[in-house]
Specification:
The complex is a heterodimer of chains A (390) and B (244).
Chain A: H1 3-16, H2 18-55, E1 60-65, H3 75-84, E2 89-104, E3 107-117, H4 121-125, E4 129-132, H5 137-141, E5 146-149, H6 151-157, E6 167-170, E7 173-181, E8 195-199, H7 200-206, E9 213-218, H8 224-239, E10 245-249, H9 250-293, H10 295-303, H11 308-345, H12 353-379, H13 383-388
Parallel strand pairs in A: 3-8, 5-7
Antiparallel strand pairs in A: 1-9, 1-10, 2-3, 2-6, 2-9, 4-7, 5-8, 6-7
Helix pairs in contact in A: 1-11, 2-9, 2-11, 2-12, 9-12, 11-12
Chain B: H1 3-6, E1 11-22, E2 25-37, E3 42-46, H2 53-60, E4 68-73, E5 76-77, H3 83-93, E6 94-97, H4 109-120, H5 124-137, H6 153-165, E7 171-175, H7 183-198, E8 202-207, H8 210-213, E9 218-223, E10 226-232, H9 233-239
Parallel strand pairs in B: 3-8, 3-9, 6-7, 7-8
Antiparallel strand pairs in B: 1-2, 1-4, 4-5, 9-10
Helix pairs in contact in B: 4-5, 4-6, 5-6, 6-7
The chains are: A alpha+beta (390), B alpha/beta (244).
Bound molecules: adenosine-5'-diphosphate (ADP) and magnesium ion.
Magnesium ion binds next to helix 2 of chain B.
Chain lengths: 390, 244
């Protein structure tokens, strides 16, 4: 028998016992479906982590520090570090992070990131302004109540309107929107486009009055660690205490993130493997029942000249096709669920092609592997006994 | 006539023993059978239940091998063959007709008849053509697309005869082919067997029923695994009463 013939035979046999076939497939559907869903969610997690970082790329070092008694770090100190290491640093911007409620013309956004930055922040994080302009030196110097907003904020607060020139409220205080930053993370909530940038001088006023963090950008990504050393040396000098500051090295964070994601993916792959194993055992079980039930058929086929490999091939094919169909249904189901989650939760959940290809081939493979034992049992049946069975 | 004049027999059983060990006891299902059947003969193997007919049929049909002895089918020694070799012999040289028809319920009539050709590796187009011809021969071609269960017992048996004939086997082996049929339909099937015998087919018919055995040209009677009569059916008709 050719492959095509045994494939047709398998389809026929599957169709002729629909209920059982569906039950056989169930394990595979659930197994493969959950792999697709988990991998799709992982994609969202990874994408959100990466875009969170993309506001402060791998070429940046974010620094947080506290005054120790009368030993402080001033803005001048920060600029001096850059000035003295021009070949190393692209620039530095003091940053003041806060969470505020925004509103405009009846539209409200609560708990938004409002980031106080300097006029060179765009160069530092490599972003662009889409409409209007960015904060200027004088905006910063004069603590102007002006802001540049991310595309998510623009879409939510100013639907169908050009925000530039409009006056919005940040915790009740009037701010004029002078620009909209170009999209960097799909205009999604919680990601980099969900932000309001204001002069850090203004932000400091609205908070404690102190500036306790900043972000440096290096000219070349591979100099990040050298840059960190330079900053550390200077802060040690200024504050005299290693515990008084903390430097976040994005490159090493990203590396760590990759490691965590790797471990997580491995763990999920393990769970997936177990669920597919369970599905495989289910298939083996049902195929064994099927062999017992179809002993007579096997006897008839053998009496008519079917060789062992014909019978074995028939059952392996059947089990492979059943779980392949189960896998395909599982993939469709998983993809559907991932898109529903994407729509409902507004996260970047996306079924990955890799997960689809792997789950399909694994499901067919598992089916054939676990179908082998029952198929071998069928192939080794004695035709006389098989014919006699009822 | 001597054996030489008749040429190589189609079936040659030499000292065939089939012995089942049942714990302490030995069951000699076939106890030294010697039998030679020529191409074109119509032979009935008859005997009471337990006499060893099925055992003999399994060996002749290459479904089983003897414990000892030699079985030549068309001059080929089948007695020591492995499973897959036996499958090949069954596929190419033997057409089975079973008491219970043994049609596959989920296949159409045509697909059932195609099965031996499928395992012989015949192309789909050829399979269909030859199976259709075989169905025409048994007068049931119009039912080709039916499921077996939609047919009467007699019709199903005809399908199984078509399946037995489709591969042009050297031997048609019929195991109680009328056992499940009423007397009128049995008559039809027997007439049909005689007809395909006249077409030149070699037929071995297994039965427990003397009256059916008498439809053959030659009768072989088994008792306790041994042949106690082997001769033309006219002769068997005279002595059968002593054989019960
Ligand atoms: N597989 C087997 N194991 C043990 N004994 C068997 C087996 N097959 C047949 N026999 C015995 O061999 C004898 C002949 O059986 P069988 O060939 O089936 O006779 P028949 O077909 O004429 O009724 C019987 O006594 C039967 O019980
Ligand atoms: Mg019997």
């Amino acid at each position: 028998m050719t492959i095509l013939q045994s494939f047709q035979l398998a389809i026929k046999s599957i169709l002729s016992n629909r209920m059982r076939s569906v039950l056989t497939m169930l394990g595979m559907i659930i197994g493969v479906g959950s792999v697709i869903i988990i991998m799709g969610m992982m994609n969202a997690v990874k994408s959100s982590m990466l875009s969170e970082f993309s506001d402060f790329g791998t070429d940046t070092l974010t620094v947080a520090y506290n005054p120790i008694g009368n030993r402080v770090v001033t803005e001048e100190d920060l600029y001096q570090i850059v000035e003295e290491n021009k070949e190393l640093f692209k620039g530095v911007s003091p940053t003041v992070e806060s969470v505020k409620n925004l509103s405009y013309n009846g539209h409200k956004l609560n708990g938004e990131t409002v980031r106080g930055v300097a006029e060179n922040f765009l160069t530092i994080n490599g972003a662009k302004v889409k409409d209007g302009r960015f904060l200027s030196y004088s905006d910063v110097y004069l603590r102007q109540p002006r802001c540049v907003i991310g595309t998510y904020v623009a879409n939510e607060l100013f639907p169908g309107e050009n925000p530039v020139g409009k006056v919005m409220k940040i915790d009740g205080e009037d701010f004029t929107v002078i620009g909209v930053r170009a999209e960097t993370a799909g205009s999604q909530k919680y990601l980099a486009d969900d932000v309001v940038l204001i002069p850090y001088t203004k932000a400091a006023r609205m908070e404690t009055g102190f500036i306790t963090s900043c972000v440096f950008a290096v000219k070349d990504v591979k100099d990040v660690n050298q840059g960190q050393t330079v900053i550390e040396d200077r802060l040690n000098e200024l504050l005299g205490d290693k515990d008084a500051y903390y430097i976040n090295n994005m490159a090493s964070m990203l590396k760590m993130l990759d490691t965590i994601m790797g471990v997580l993916t491995g763990a999920i792959a393990g769970i997936a493997a177990i669920s597919l194993l369970v599905a495989g055992i289910g298939i083996m079980n049902i195929m064994l029942v099927s062999v017992t039930e179809r002993t007579k058929e096997i006897g008839i086929r053998k009496s008519l000249g079917a060789r062992k490999k014909d019978i074995r091939g028939q059952f392996i094919m059947e089990s492979g096709v059943v779980s392949g169909i189960g896998g395909t249904i599982g993939i469709l189901f998983g993809v559907l669920v991932v898109y529903i989650i994407r729509l409902l939760a507004h996260i970047d959940a996306k079924p990955t092609l890799g997960a689809i290809i792997i789950s399909f081939s694994v499901s067919v493979g598992v089916g054939m592997l676990f179908g082998y034992m029952p198929a071998k049992k069928a192939a080794n049946l004695n035709p006389i006994d098989a014919l006699r069975s009822e | 006539m001597s054996n030489q004049e008749k040429g190589t027999p189609l079936i040659l059983l030499e000292n065939i023993y089939k012995i089942y060990e049942m714990g302490e006891e030995q069951v000699r299902a076939n106890d030294g059978i010697n039998l030679s059947i020529q191409k074109g003969e119509f032979v009935a193997i008859v005997g009471k239940s337990g006499s060893g007919k099925s055992t003999a049929m399994n060996i002749i049909g290459a479904l089983d091998v003897p414990t000892s002895g030699r079985y030549l089918l068309n001059g080929i020694d089948v007695s020591g063959m492995k499973d897959d070799e036996l499958a090949g012999i069954r596929n190419k040289m033997i057409g089975f007709i079973f008491q219970q028809y043994h049609l596959l319920p989920r296949l159409s009539v045509l697909e059932n008849v195609e099965l031996p050709l499928l395992y012989a590796g015949v192309s789909p187009a050829q399979r269909k053509e030859r199976a259709m011809k075989a169905l025409e021969k048994v007068g049931i071609a119009d039912k080709w697309n039916n499921q077996p269960k939609q047919l009467s017992g007699g019709q199903q048996q005809r399908v199984s005869i078509a399946r037995a004939l489709v591969g042009n086997p050297s031997l048609i082996l019929a195991d109680e082919p009328t056992g499940a049929l009423d007397s009128k339909t049995s008559r039809e099937v027997l007439t049909f067997l005689q007809q395909i015998h006249e077409d030149g087919n070699t037929i071995v018919l297994i039965t427990h029923d003397n009256s059916i055995a008498l439809e053959a040209q030659r009768v072989v009677r088994l008792k306790d695994g041994k042949i106690i009569f082997d001769g033309p059916s006219e002769e068997y008709r005279k002595v059968q009463v002593n054989m019960q």
